[in-house]
Specification:
Blueprint lengths: L6 H8 L5 E3 L2 E3 L12 H6 L2 H20 L3 H12 L6 E5 L5 H7 L7 E6 L2 H10 L5 E5 L12 E7 L8 H10 L1 E12 L5 H13 L9 H8 L2 E9 L2 E8 L2
Parallel strand pairs: 2-5, 3-4, 3-6, 4-5, 6-7
Antiparallel strand pairs: 1-2, 7-9, 8-9
Keywords: Methyltransferase, Transferase
InterPro entries: Methyltransf_11, SAM-dependent_MTases_sf
Protein name: Methyltransferase domain-containing protein
């Protein structure tokens, strides 16, 4: 295979810093560790056992209960919202074991590249094993300081992870930064009910294990303030799906 067709080399060319090859993915962090004490939910995401069962059992069940949307329907909705048939480069942030990265890569046109980024070594190792292909590459990196230049990707997404991150607003701003003009962005994250008893109960229970519940306007306002257009929000039970585009 020519070097220019190798997804590892193509991805390495997009990085703004050095990366070592580790278990089949590119590692920009090395032995770096987070300075903040991880929550219970964050520790789970770094477990080899969770990496094995997450997309096969845990996530499909939890997200169906939380939204009423199946994984297949979620993937189809994501591909449509991101307009992947017209995209060249996709960045999937907090990709976990790569189930979405691999499926979304199949929707890209010939020559497309889907990059899955995560901080968890077990998750990325699983992604390389289960969801690699000629259009995919995985990178270990910090979503709060993405290792890419401005306007690198035609589509950027983060599904089911912002509520676990210590600085989710910073991550969302980084997503906007690396998005090209004319590109599309999509997130799936938690939604705090406007009904006071439900709101307080879900925030308390979620907070106990380190999951944030976001108010309805948080990401809609953030995208609008960043100058994004065509903002759309869908609320399903305890989850919200927000999409937007960057003006050309």
């Amino acid at each position: 295979m020519a070097a220019t067709d190798d997804p590892l080399q193509r991805t390495r060319d997009l990085l703004d810093r050095d990366a070592s090859l580790r278990h089949g993915f590119l590692d920009t962090l090395g032995e770096s560790v987070a300075s903040e004490t991880p929550t219970l939910a964050q520790r789970a995401m770094n477990s080899p056992l969770v990496a094995t069962i997450y997309e096969r059992l845990w996530r499909p069940v939890a997200f169906y209960v939380g939204s009423g949307i199946t994984t297949g329907a979620e993937q189809r909705r994501a591909a449509e919202a991101l307009r992947l048939s017209c995209a060249t480069r996709l960045l999937d942030i907090a990709c976990g074991p790569g189930n979405f990265t691999g499926k979304l890569a199949e929707q890209l046109p010939p020559g497309g590249l889907a990059v899955g980024l995560d901080i968890s070594v077990p998750m990325l190792t699983r992604a390389v094993h289960d969801n690699s292909g000629p259009r995919t590459c995985y990178v270990r990196g910090d979503a709060g300081v993405l290792p890419f230049d401005d306007e690198t990707f035609d589509a950027v997404c983060c599904f089911g992870a912002l509520y676990l991150m210590p600085k989710p607003i910073q991550v969302a701003r980084e997503m906007v930064r690396v998005l090209r003009p004319g590109g599309r962005i999509a997130i799936l994250t938690s939604h705090a009910s406007h009904i006071p008893p439900v709101r307080y109960a879900t925030k308390a229970s979620a907070g106990a294990i380190g999951i944030r519940m976001f108010d309805r306007q948080v990401f809609v306002d953030l995208f609008a303030e960043a100058g994004l257009v065509d903002i759309d929000q869908q609320i399903q039970r305890h989850l919200q799906f927000v999409t937007a585009g960057k003006a050309e």
